[in-house]
Every structure is written in structure tokens, then in C-alpha cells.
């Protein structure tokens, strides 16, 4: 069982081993979910891809979306399946808010951040400029 703190540390270490060229983010853009309906479900095709791109734990994004959209959802392979029909523009608006709140550093505007929890408070920590500030809890 890896403790969350250890996991953060492992990520940090793995990240610090990357050559600078890889770390340099190629112009970050807020990603968009590709969404389609299947029966009474809403499928996000590129869910995992987006999670990887914004470097956030899929579990955290799942939590955020289910809360914000007030609809149950589950991950299936690379996809996210939401129960009920949710308009794609609504989902992407939530994703945009998530990225602006929890990914892009409000000090320097770079996406080279991570989420950390200190004494029950969630923070964004930026590895580009060193900023650290609290953000609203997710779920
Ligand atoms: Zn920053």
C-alpha cells in the first residue's frame, strides 16, 4: 500500500529524472472531451487521454465530474460512461473550469502543477514558479 505522500514523492522523482527537453511543455491547450450518446448514456471517448494530458489522477477528475454534473459515472477502459444524457458543451465547460482551477498555475499560467493535500487542505503546487495556493476541495 503506497501512501499518498509517497506516491507524490515517487511522481516528483520520476519527473525530475526526465530531461529538460521533455519537461518543456509544448504549448499547453485546454483539452476537449470527445462525447457521444449511446442509448441513455453519455460516453467520453478520450477520458484517459485527457487525464494523461493534464496530468491529473482519473479518479480525481471522475469525482469532480460526477459532483459537478450530478450524474453517476464510471470509467470503462479509456472511456468514461455517464448515466443519462449530458450536453457535450456542458461537460467541456466543466473540464475547462477544472483545468483553470486545478491545473493551470494562477501565478505564472503554466500547467506544470500538481495537487497536494496538507492537513486536509488541497493545494495547487507549481513546479515552474514554485507557487502554492489552496483550492476548493473536490467532492
Ligand atoms: Zn506557476
Give the SSE layout:
Elements: H1 4-16, H2 20-23, E1 35-38, E2 41-44, H3 47-54, H4 58-69, E3 73-76, E4 79-83, H5 88-102, E5 113-118, E6 121-126, E7 132-134
Antiparallel strand pairs: 1-2, 2-4, 3-4, 5-6, 6-7
Helix pairs in contact: 4-5
The structure holds zinc ion.
For the residues shown, what is the average pLDDT?
A: 91
N-C termini distance: 23 Å
Share in β-strands: 15-25%
Question: How many strands in all?
Answer: 7
Major beta sheet summary: 4 strands, antiparallel
CATH topology call of the largest domain: Defensin A-like
Poorly predicted runs: none
Write down the CATH class of the largest domain: Alpha Beta
Helical coverage, percent range: 25-40%
Number of domains: 2
- Architecture of the largest domain, according to CATH? 2-Layer Sandwich
Name the overall outline.
globular
Discrete helix count: 5
Q: Radius of gyration over alpha carbons? A: 16 Å
Cofactors and ligands present?
zinc ion
Biggest β-sheet: strands ordered side by side in the sheet: 1-2-4-3
Which structural category fits the helices and strands? alpha+beta
Helix-strand pattern? HHEEHHEEHEEE
